[in-house]
Amino acid sequence: MENIFVEGLKENDINKLLAVPKSDLHNHSTNGCRREWLAQHLHVNIPEPPQHLEGLEGMQTWFRSSIKPFCNGL
Q1: Radius of gyration, CA atoms only, the chain
Q2: CA quadruple 71, 18, 14, 35: dihedral positive or negative?
Q3: pLDDT by position in tens, the chain (length 74)
Q4: Do residues 70 and 61 make contact, with C-beta atoms less than 8 angstroms apart?
Q5: Is the pTM of this model over 0.70?
Q6: Rounded to an integer, what distance in angstroms lies between the CA atom of residue 59 and that of residue 13?
Q7: Concatenated DSSP letters of 14-52
Q8: How far apart are alpha carbons 30 and 67 in whole angstroms?
Q9: Which of 18, 21, 37, 54 has the least C-beta neighbours within 10 A?
């Protein structure tokens, strides 16, 4: 295989993943998935974000009003 990190991912082997120096394995939960996928799994309609989000704060404002109400515990 290509390397121990790829092997660990393909084999779902946490020990191989932990053996990789300076790896960062995480996901931003509801910020780290597609809006369409989340809407389908939550059975809700999530509006599209505006064309321009006015930076990170604009993204957070849209997230708090459009997604967070449906998954407050996440």
Answers
A1: 17
A2: positive
A3: 468 889 999 999 999 988 888 766 667 777 778 899 999 988 999 999 999 998 999 999 999 999 999 887 65
A4: no
A5: no
A6: 34
A7: HHHHHHSTT------GGGSS-HHHHHHHHTS--PPPPS-
A8: 8
A9: 21
How far apart CA 74 and CA 68 sit, in angstroms, is 8
Domain positions in the chain are 1-26, 33-74
Query: Could you tell me which residues come within 8 angstroms of residue 25 by beta carbon, excluding any fewer than 6 positions away?
Result: 17
- Whether 68 and 40 have beta carbons less than 8 Å apart is answered as no
Collapsed DSSP state (helix, strand, coil) of residue 46: coil
CB burial class (10 A; 0-12, 13-18, 19+) of residue 5?
middle
Amino acid at 11: E
